């Protein structure tokens, strides 16, 4: 009895499992691989976005001429530069509305605000890409593994009913191979849940930073419009 138990290995138990349990294990391993790919890829995207947001805010606050800053941004064209994309959207809309004759300053600011809201929504969608899949892997994998475990234990007891004398050596392999499915499910779920919670917090932080920048850009453009209107009034 002891020798047969000592010869049990994880790979041997997996290879001896039923086809359904093996399919469950394979699906969980694939889900784990996909979630780890997303964890690495999303972590890199968020890190670049956070670094860019901090750097561009310093450039924006230190730049006296927004037109020059826009030309520099157009030449760079960084897809992960979220704040930079917001600036181009807001300032581009400002320049376009400024060309319309007789338009009021409030109408210009409202147009800039709408453009910024659209750009922020696009950036949030870009940052949240892949997070629903991580949430799905984190919430579903334990139940899929539990299903494989229940099925494996059920088969073990069915086989046990056909044996005249039940011993630990006859029961242990079937139960052990069934429990591996739950272990793989937890292995897939735990990193996905941790990553999802962490990434969601970072996305929320970046979203708050985007809205803050949008308000800052609007305020700066509004002051610019008012100063221009004041100079026109004085000249008249």
From TrEMBL:
Localization: Cell inner membrane; Cell membrane
Key words, A-Z: Cell cycle, Cell division, Cell inner membrane, Cell membrane, Membrane, Transmembrane, Transmembrane helix
Main location: membrane
GO biological process: bacteriocin transport; cell division; protein import
Transmembrane portions of the chain: 20-40, 133-154, 174-196
Record's bilayer topology term: Multi-pass membrane protein
Gene Ontology CC entries for this record: plasma membrane
One Pfam family from the record: MotA_ExbB
Every MotA/TolQ/ExbB proton channel domain range: 97-206
Self-association and partners: The Tol-Pal system is composed of five core proteins: the inner membrane proteins TolA, TolQ and TolR, the periplasmic protein TolB and the outer membrane protein Pal. They form a network linking the inner and outer membranes and the peptidoglycan layer.
Main function: Part of the Tol-Pal system, which plays a role in outer membrane invagination during cell division and is important for maintaining outer membrane integrity.
NCBIfam families reported in the protein's UniProt record: tolQ (TIGR02796)
Family from the record: Belongs to the ExbB/TolQ family.
Protein name per the record: Tol-Pal system protein TolQ
């Amino acid at each position: 009895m002891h020798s047969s138990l000592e010869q049990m290995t994880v790979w041997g138990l997996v290879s001896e499992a039923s086809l359904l349990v093996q399919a469950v294990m394979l699906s969980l391993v694939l889900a784990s691989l996909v979630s780890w790919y997303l964890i690495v890829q999303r972590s890199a995207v968020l890190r670049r976005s956070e670094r860019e947001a901090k750097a561009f805010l310093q450039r924006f606050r230190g730049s006296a001429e927004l037109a020059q800053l826009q030309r520099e941004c157009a030449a760079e064209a960084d897809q992960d530069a979220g704040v930079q994309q917001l600036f181009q959207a807001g300032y581009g809309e400002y320049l376009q509305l400024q060309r319309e004759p007789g338009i009021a300053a409030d109408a210009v600011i409202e147009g800039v605000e709408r453009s910024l809201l659209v750009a922020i929504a696009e950036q949030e969608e870009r940052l949240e890409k892949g997070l629903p899949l991580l949430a799905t892997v984190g919430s579903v994998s334990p139940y899929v593994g539990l299903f494989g475990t229940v099925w494996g234990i059920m088969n073990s007891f069915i086989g046990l009913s056909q044996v005249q004398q039940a011993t630990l050596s006859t029961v242990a392999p079937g139960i052990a191979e069934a429990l591996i499915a739950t272990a793989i499910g937890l292995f897939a779920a735990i990193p996905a849940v941790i990553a999802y919670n962490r990434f969601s917090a970072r996305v929320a932080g970046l979203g708050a930073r985007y809205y803050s920048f949008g308000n800052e850009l609007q305020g700066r453009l509004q002051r610019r419009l008012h100063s221009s209107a004041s100079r026109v009034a004085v000249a008249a």
